[in-house]
Design brief:
single chain; about 220 residues; mainly alpha; 10 helices; about 0% strand; globular
């Protein structure tokens, strides 16, 4: 959960030039003994380029259609964005890809930071739902693991949704002092959320194991 949240940092890149440099560096490394690393960097560059190009076309679509009304409606209600995040991440089975799209839209001020955070919290729940459905036809252990994953993300997201105003205020203070763009702030919120929830989970797990040993 913590490791994957760092990948959204790459989605905060707002320049085709930087993406082009990543691709060039990747291609150069491909001709060295670190060929596998080069391929990973090239794939990352292609992913960033595709995401940015898709968001560029999405912005044009929003400007020339009734989607602007829908986006505005979502942007005025973070509860909508929370459930929107659940649905989108469930459909595409990637919370990071969904968050990446929202990050790009936030750079164009279509999505506020608060609504971007709400989407991120919902997206973390959406990706765990399919795991439960699939594990129902597998063995009991896989179902338990999927259920724990869902419960962990669900409870964590609900707690942060209840504290979203304070959480957003904290991130806005960080943004003012660092001049970070909206996409980077949303990425930072994703990292903080996952780090805190994992830390709390380990504390609960430690207490549970200690009690079982005592009993």
């Amino acid at each position: 959960n913590i490791g994957t949240s760092f990948s959204t940092m790459f989605f905060s890149i707002n320049s085709y030039l930087i993406i082009l440099l990543i691709l060039i560096v990747g291609f150069i490394i491909c001709f060295s003994k670190y060929k596998s690393l080069g391929k990973i960097i090239v794939l990352l560059g292609i992913l960033l380029f595709s995401l940015k190009h898709m968001c560029y076309n999405l912005e044009k679509l929003i400007e020339t259609s009734n989607l602007s009304y829908l986006i505005l409606k979502f942007n005025n209600n973070y509860i909508y964005m929370f459930f929107f995040g659940i649905v989108i991440s469930f459909l595409i089975q990637s919370s990071n890809a969904g968050i990446g799209i929202i990050q790009q839209l936030s750079l164009s001020n279509y999505i506020s930071i608060k609504c971007g955070i709400a989407f991120m919290l919902g997206a973390n729940i959406g990706t765990t739902i399919l795991g439960i459905i699939i594990s129902c036809i597998n063995d009991k252990n896989s179902f338990h693991v999927s259920l724990i994953n869902f419960t962990f993300n669900f409870l964590g997201s609900i707690i942060f949704m209840l504290l979203i105003n304070s959480f957003t205020s904290l991130l806005l203070i960080i943004q003012e002092n660092t001049s970070a763009n909206n996409a980077l702030v949303i990425s930072l919120s994703h990292i903080i959320y996952n780090t805190i929830t994992v830390f709390l989970f380990f504390i609960i797990l430690y207490i549970y194991i200690k009690k079982r040993k005592h009993n």
